[in-house]
Amino acid sequence: MEWDGDRIAILTFTDVPRSNQVSWAAIDALAEQLKSCRESGARVLVLASGLPGHWLEHAWLRDLSNGVQGLEQTGSGAGWFGALKELSRESVISIAAISGDCSGGGAELGWACDLRVAEAQVLFSQPEVNMGLTTGIGGSSRLVRLAGRSAASEMVLTGRPMSAQRLYDLGAINQVVSNGQALKEALTLAHLMAAKPPAAIAGLKQILAVNDDATLNEALRYEQAVFQSVVVTEEAREGMEQTQSQYDTGRSISEVNNYDDWNNR
Q1: CB burial class (10 A; 0-12, 13-18, 19+) of residue 232?
Q2: Which domain holds residue 163?
Q3: How many domains does the chain have?
C-alpha cells in the first residue's frame, strides 16, 4: 500500500507463487488494508497488480476446498465479504486499475469497484462452472447489471473469457487503455474525484446504490446461498482439487480452461 498525496491510496496485489490467485490470508489482509486506508482519510482507493499478465485472479482453490472439508486454511476468508463492504462505502471511491487477466473472485472484486480501467489485452472470466461451482459474490448478480443479461449469461454459463473491449462496449468497463497504462489512467481519475466535495460524492454513491440495492441485496444473498449448496458437493470438491492440481504443476489459468484455444479462433 502506498499513498499518492494524502487522499489517494494505491493497493498493489502481488502473489507470484499463486499467480495472483487470492488466498484466504491475502483477502483477509486486503480487507484490513482497505479499511485502514479509509479510516486514515483516503477518498479514493485504487486496486492494482504488481504481477505482469495478472490482475486479481480467482480464489486460491486449496483454501476453498479445505474450508469445505474442514481442513486447515491460510486465513478466515471473511475478507471476501469485508473487502466488498469496504468497496461499497459511500465515503470512498474505488477504482480497479486492471493491467492483467482477472477471473472468478478477483473479477468479482473488480465488478464491485465504482470504476474499472482495463488495458486492451486483458481478458475477464468467471470460470466457476468449469470447476462444478457457481459464482458466489457478484460474478452473476453484479455482472448482469453492468454488462447485461446476455453477456453475463455467456460468461458464467460457458466459463469462457470476454475481452476488455467487448465489456467496454457493453458498459461494464469505464476505459480501455493501452498496455501498461491502467494505473496511470486510474490515478488521473482518482485525482479528479479526490478533489470533489466529499458530501456530494457520498450522496451520489448513495443515490446510485439505492437504484440497485433493493434487488441486488436479495440477488447476492441468493447467489451466496446457491454457492454454499453447490460448493459442498462431491463434484465441486473434485473439480477444485483437479483444477488446483493443474495449477500446482505450473499451468496457467488460460491453459487449464482452454482460453488460448478459444481466443485464437
Answers
A1: exposed
A2: 2-180+198-263
A3: 1
